Input
Amino acid sequence: MINGFCYTICSILLLLAVFSTSLDVNILINSDELKFSSIGEFWFQLSPSSLQISEAIVSRYLDPCSLFRNLNCGPFLWHPIIATILTFPATLFFLVISLLLFSIAKLRKRKRYLHFYR
Output
């Protein structure tokens, strides 16, 4: 079950890596400078309205400081954490995360077979 989930997410992330690579190649062809697109730019190219809606949903409904008024803290989930992740290079990020999930799934599969044959 978990291996299937890992393989599915890994496949989606690899597909996103291919799409972000094509965006990077397009940027490289149309400009003279070597610049890689960030996750935020890639997301904005795909669907700008969903990026804004996601920020509103995370800031209002998922951030613990906005859910509980007694905490008396400022929102910290979107702006320092997710905004930092959105500045990472898209292709590299998607490739690294997909390879990490693939290796986790392979490790779990190997442990299951080793446990079965004992």
